[in-house]
Recover the amino acids of this structure.
């Protein structure tokens, strides 16, 4: 039964059926299916199937966008369950998808999970230049700068941002966390990031660890 509901959500994402994704996600939560399963086995898994079809040229950008929108509406229903209100933030995180990159689904999930773990989040959005990260970090003290990249062609912007932080004299004041599908621990180490996480849950663990350093 549970698997059937999760399968229906995956199908609705593949079909780009926003109304069905919303209705089925609500139903899954009402039935008591865990948030983690709804997120990992239905919403993210559905988007992974879409990603595979996109890669094989079976579908194109407009269809991907429609599916992404449907997936994000489902994700929005989970957010209140993750976010705890009225609790003192454990740290402040500036997050953004780096310059040249418009992908934000993964970054939004990371942001949502960090909020749920009581981090205060400032989300700079997509296509964030090194200077925008620096201006925001200078405007309000932050503990962690979290950068997401989904393109091999935009990964270099993470290094540019770290170099710009050094040049602006604030590198020692912040920890830098990086992630996104093409990013690896080796790449993170090579560009001088303080931490790397493979997924959103890992980003929460790593952000907590960085605050202790
Ligand atoms: Co794009 N795209 N896309 N795309 N797209 C990929 C990434 C691609 C792998 C597809 C493919 O060809 N196989 C490929 C990149 C190839 C590469 O560089 N290696 C690609 C390409 C080429 C492109 C365009 C260039 C296509 C074109 O125009 N010809 C173009 C680039 C635009 C640009 O950015 N300048 C483009 C455009 C788009 C859309 C706009 C259509 C859309 C984005 C919509 C949006 O984000 N609002 C889109 C999508 C949706 C995808 C795929 C299908 C799905 C990405 C996604 O959302 N995954 C993707 C194929 C795929 O991944 N299979 C693809 C679901 C999401 C939950 O996972 O983002 O990996 P992910 O996030 C995970 C982890 O990576 C991690 O945690 C998240 C949750 O667990 N994580 C972090 C992410 N950020 C983190 C930060 C952290 C820690 C962990 O710490 C700070």
């Amino acid at each position: 039964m549970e698997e059937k509901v999760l399968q229906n959500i995956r199908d609705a994402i593949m079909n780009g059926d926003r109304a069905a994704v919303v209705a089925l996600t609500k139903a899954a939560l009402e039935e008591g299916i865990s948030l983690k399963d709804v997120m990992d086995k239905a919403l993210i898994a559905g988007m992974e199937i879409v990603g595979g079809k996109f890669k094989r040229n079976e579908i194109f950008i407009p269809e991907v966008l429609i599916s992404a929108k449907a997936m994000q509406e489902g994700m929005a229903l989970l957010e209140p369950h993750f976010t705890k209100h009225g609790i003192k933030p454990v740290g402040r995180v500036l997050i953004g998808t780096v310059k040249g990159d418009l992908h934000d689904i993964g970054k939004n999930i990371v942001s949502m999970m960090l909020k749920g773990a009581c981090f205060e989040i400032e989300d700079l959005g997509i296509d964030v230049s090194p200077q925008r990260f620096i201006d925001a970090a200078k405007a309000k003290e932050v503990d962690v700068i979290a950068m997401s990249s989904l393109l091999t062609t935009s990964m270099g912007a993470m290094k540019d941002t770290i170099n710009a932080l050094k040049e602006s004299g604030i590198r020692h004041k912040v920890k830098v966390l990086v992630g996104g599908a093409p990013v690896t621990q080796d790449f993170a180490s090579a560009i001088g990031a303080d931490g790397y996480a493979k997924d959103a849950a890992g980003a929460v663990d790593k952000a907590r660890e960085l605050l202790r350093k």
